[in-house]
Every structure is written in structure tokens, then in C-alpha cells.
Design brief:
The complex is a heterodimer. Chain A is α/β, with parallel strands linked by helices. Chain A has 5 helices and 5 strands, in the order E-E-H-E-H-E-H-E-H-H. In chain A, helix 2 packs parallel to helix 3. The longest helix of chain A has 13 residues, at 91-103. Chain A is globular. The two termini of chain B are 22 Å apart. Chain B has a 4-stranded mixed sheet with strand order 1-2-3-6. A two-stranded antiparallel ribbon of chain B has the order 4-5. Chain B contains 8 helices and 10 strands. The longest helix of chain B has 12 residues, at 64-75. Chain B has a single domain (3-225), classed as TIM Barrel (Alpha-Beta Barrel), CATH 3.20.20. In chain B, helix 1 (3-12) packs across helix 2. Helix content of chain B is 29%, strand content 21%. Classes of the chains: A alpha/beta, B alpha/beta. The A-B interface holds A 25-28, 30-31, 44-48, 51-52, 70, 72 and B 52-54, 115-117, 138, 143-148, 150.
Chain lengths: 129, 229
């Protein structure tokens, strides 16, 4: 994997396509704002992370700064097939790399209109400028 | 906010029972207990611990000794950083008459390396009562930080910071169909905030064990959030 992440749980969910990225540690904010299919970058390790990831249909969760997900979180992620990934890198660094990778993709919003925010460097958004 | 001034403000606000819950510290609780001695005010020693998730939990104990033992457990999990008085202010430890005994050197205004799950379990194991603080606020609250109340978290009550938010919180919790009491508390950081919002506890005596029973609604005991005054 190009972000150099370690898989801690939910390996069976790894085939999901990453449609977007989202970075936040307030789970209430993630529930309210994260786009569907996002790879969610956070430093939270609680079991609730998995439930929120399911709710937003996340492609997976990246836990930053060398933190380890709690055991209950791993068990839940395993049974729900939500990939829990870890990195020693900071939230800032890993979000930057994810942003760059997503910019290489063709945005799936294709035609969803001028409000597309699902991909940070959406080619359509570039054209619109 | 010296111990005698806190006791006077609480009595003036018509309170019978207060908790003293400094951030990650219980070091001033005994002084407030002592300052209230001989007055009608009952003081519960405790702490507002900040967990790894940046969730605030009100921890209350029957005796100051138990609160201090919990403080030791929390201090062991604080980062080895000193308080920067210019940024955060002085962390004063006062005696019952409000005189400075000393200053806490370690930085308290941070998170302890304890998860919510661990902190709740440990406070309960020590015979304490733990109530997630101001869950109606976005910041530093269990529901704000973790999105919703973890279904298996063994708490019996949640605190709201404004009585008028209790209905909304109760509605949000309804789908979990577990019995939870709601209490409102002022989270007073200044004398003027003391008594800003209050909860009526219908108890046999002003003891921690009675409060725990009232939160469960045992034997006709109950808690009622008083209207905003």
C-alpha cells in the first residue's frame, strides 16, 4: 500500500475503493460531515470509531501517531470488515499523502455538479476554475 | 475561587451539596471539605478527569482519601510536562482558609493516558461514581468526542451543562433503551457560576452511596433537573 499503513483489523474489507478522504478526531463531526467512501484519518482509538466508520460507509480508518486501536475496536472492525490501519506518521503528514494520491485519481463525482468536494483535486473542479 | 469563598457562594446560592472536581486533580478537595465543616453545606471530593479521547468525566468519591488515591493513578498517566504559568495560569493548592500551600508543577491541563473505558472501570473499582461531563457540549464531551454513548459503558448518569438541553439529550439517548439519569451541573469555574444550574437529589442523606441509588431510581429516590434560574 502506497501510504505504508499497517493493517490491524478488518483485512477482508481492504478491497473497498477509497473515494475520498476525511480527517477529524471529533466523531460527532465525522458523523455529520464525512463523505461516503472516505479513508478516515484520526487519532481516536475507541470502539466507537468502527461504528462511525460503518455509518459513513468509510473505506477504512487510519489511526495516526503510532497509536494502537483498542482491543474492542479491533474485534468490532474484524466482525464488520472495516479496515483499521495504523501509521507512526502524524495526522498532518498522512493526510497530505492521501490528498496527493486522491489527486491522481479521476474524480468519481463526474458530473455531480460544481459542489463536488469528494476528491480534493477533482479534475472537474480544476476545469471549472 | 478559594475554599471559603466557594463555600460562601454555594450557601448563598442555596445549595446543600456540591462536588469539587478540578481538572485532573483532587488536590484542593479536602480544603473545601474542611472549609465547609460546621456549615450546612456537604462537599463531595472528586476530579474532572480528561481521558485520552479528550472526554471529561466527573469522578466523585465518598472520602477525600479515595479521591487522592485516584489522583495518584491519574498523575502517573499524565505526560511529564511542567505547567507553563504564563500560558495556563498558576495551579494553586490552597488550604481551608484560602492560603496558598504550594503550586502543582506538573501540567494538569492535558489528557491522562487513560481511555474512557479504563477510567470508568477504574473509578468504579475504587468505589467512586463517574458521570460523563457536559455531554450537551461539542468540546471535551463523551458524545462530542465519541459521537454517541458507547452502549457498554457502565455509567448510570450523564451530565448536561444547561437544563434546557436535557430533553434533547434524553431524546438522542432514547434508542439505546437503557436507564440513564440526567443531571445538570454548573461546571463552575468562577464564583459567579456556582449555582448557575442545579439538580435536586431526593435522598435519605447527602452521601455518595445515596446519590448512586438516586441515579438508579432505587427505593423512591430520584434526581430532578431544576429549572433554569
Amino acid at each position: 500500500m502506497r501510504l505504508g499503513l499497517t493493517v490491524k483489523a478488518g483485512r477482508r474489507g481492504l478491497d473497498r475503493e477509497v473515494l475520498a478522504g476525511y480527517t477529524a478526531d471529533l466523531l460527532s463531526d465525522v458523523m455529520a460531515r464525512a463523505p461516503r467512501g472516505a479513508l478516515w484519518v484520526t487519532l481516536q482509538t475507541h470502539e466507537n470509531v468502527v461504528a462511525v466508520a460503518l455509518l459513513i460507509e468509510a473505506a477504512g480508518v487510519v489511526i495516526t501517531g503510532g497509536r494502537e486501536p483498542e482491543e474492542a475496536a479491533c474485534r468490532r472492525a474484524e466482525s464488520e470488515n472495516i479496515p483499521l490501519l495504523t501509521t507512526p506518521e502524524t495526522t498532518f503528514a498522512i493526510s497530505g499523502k492521501l490528498y496527493a494520491l486522491l489527486g491522481e485519481k479521476e474524480c468519481l463525482c463526474a458530473g455531480s455538479g460544481p459542489t463536488c468536494t469528494s476528491i480534493p483535486l477533482c479534475p472537474l473542479a480544476q476545469k471549472r476554475k | 475561587m478559594t475554599p471559603p469563598a466557594i463555600v460562601r457562594a454555594a450557601l448563598r446560592a442555596g445549595l446543600d451539596l456540591i462536588g469539587v472536581t478540578d481538572h485532573n486533580s483532587a488536590a484542593n478537595a479536602a480544603a473545601v471539605l474542611a472549609a465547609a465543616r460546621g456549615t450546612p453545606l456537604k462537599v463531595l471530593p472528586g476530579m474532572e478527569v480528561q481521558t485520552k479521547e479528550e472526554v471529561h468525566l466527573v469522578c466523585l468519591f465518598a472520602r477525600a482519601g479515595a479521591a487522592l488515591a485516584w489522583q495518584e493513578a491519574v498523575y502517573r498517566r499524565l505526560p511529564p510536562k511542567d505547567n507553563e504559568e504564563a500560558f495556563f495560569g498558576a495551579q494553586l493548592l490552597l488550604d481551608a482558609r484560602g492560603r496558598e500551600r504550594r503550586r502543582e508543577k506538573r501540567l494538569l491541563l492535558t489528557s491522562a493516558a487513560l481511555t474512557v473505558t479504563e477510567a470508568v472501570a477504574e473509578v468504579l473499582a475504587r468505589g467512586g461514581l463517574v458521570i460523563p461531563a457536559h455531554v450537551d457540549r461539542p468540546a471535551y464531551s463523551l458524545i462530542g468526542m465519541l459521537g454517541f454513548l458507547p452502549p457498554d459503558l457502565p455509567v448510570t448518569a450523564l451530565e448536561v451543562s444547561r437544563p434546557e438541553n436535557a430533553r434533547q439529550v434524553a431524546g438522542d439517548l432514547a434508542p439505546q433503551s437503557r436507564r440513564l439519569a440526567l443531571v445538570a451541573a454548573s461546571d463552575a469555574h468562577t464564583l459567579a457560576d456556582i449555582g448557575r444550574c442545579v439538580t435536586a437529589f431526593y435522598l435519605r442523606s447527602a452521601a455518595l452511596s445515596e446519590i448512586s441509588r438516586a441515579l438508579r431510581g432505587a427505593g423512591g429516590r430520584k434526581v430532578v433537573i431544576e429549572p433554569f434560574v
